[in-house]
Design a protein that fits this description.
This protein has about 250 residues and is mainly alpha-helical. It has twelve helices and four strands, in the order ααααααααββααβαβα. The chain folds into two domains: about 120 residues, no CATH class; about 110 residues, no CATH class.
């Protein structure tokens, strides 16, 4: 049996606002204003359908998980569901919309999921684009790999130099290699990547590397000189953000 499609209507107050805004646009007469009103309603319906499909997929992954029925029956979960639907309706990016379905699924299985903490950080999800989120996640994964498998990561340091008879990565070559990888993945120019870094710093999600050299001054100084340590890193705020959507280790 074919699933019935959800219908999202625009209330009278919203209709009045939309028509008032559209009436300000030159060359838009009554029929066009009506058309745009219907288009906006159809867009909301389509995005709600998308959220339902994403959520169904997430919940399918939880078939073998133990879910506390008390969570589902709680006011906090009802509020979270409402907030996730609301945020999903606001974005045209399908990948970002999947994050909200993931949050819903995480709340049912992650024992340390905090509804209060999510409410405090929720506005960040609305401000950040999926590309920004993915860039930070890529940076986190890349840095972790660099720290745990330096020799394996040497293949990314394509430009080398001889220092004291040693064939070493060029200064900051790992940061440059990461940047080039992101430019290719996202199909953007170098200047745009620089702008993304700046925007993420303004949002408190990215900062200059704060590596502590005191623990092993000689080794870390050597690695810094040869580009081992990244110039930038995600902040604790991003760590808080990502724990609501990423899988547990």
């Amino acid at each position: 049996m074919e699933k019935s499609k959800p219908i999202v209507s625009i209330n009278p107050a919203q209709q009045t606002i939309i028509k008032s805004i559209l009436s300000l646009i030159p060359l838009l007469g009554g029929p066009m204003i009506q058309l745009f009103s219907h288009r906006i309603a159809a867009q909301k319906t389509s995005r709600l359908e998308r959220f339902m499909e994403d959520t169904e997929l997430e919940l399918t992954k939880l078939r073998n998980s133990r879910i506390d029925s008390a969570i589902i029956e709680s006011d906090e979960f009802t509020d979270l569901l409402s907030k996730c639907i609301e945020m999903s309706l606001k974005t045209q990016n399908d990948q970002k919309a999947k994050l909200f379905a993931s949050i819903l699924g995480k709340s049912l299985t992650f024992k340390d999921f905090s509804f209060d903490e999510f409410e405090e950080i929720r506005f960040i999800f609305e401000q950040i684009s999926f590309r920004e989120f993915q860039l930070l996640q890529n940076l986190k994964d890349w840095t972790n790999k660099l720290n745990s498998d330096y020799l394996g990561m040497l293949k990314y340091a394509n430009e080398r130099t001889m220092i004291n008879g040693c064939n070493a990565p060029r200064f900051h070559s790992f940061q440059d290699a990461f940047d080039l990888k992101q430019i290719s993945e996202f199909g953007i120019e170098k200047d745009r990547l620089k702008t993304l870094y700046e925007l993420l710093q303004q949002k408190g999600l990215l900062r200059k590397s704060t590596t502590d050299f005191s623990a092993n001054q000689a080794v870390l100084s050597y690695r810094w000189s040869f580009g081992y340590i990244m110039l930038v890193e995600p902040t604790e705020l991003f760590e808080q953000l990502s724990k609501f959507v990423t899988k547990e280790d």
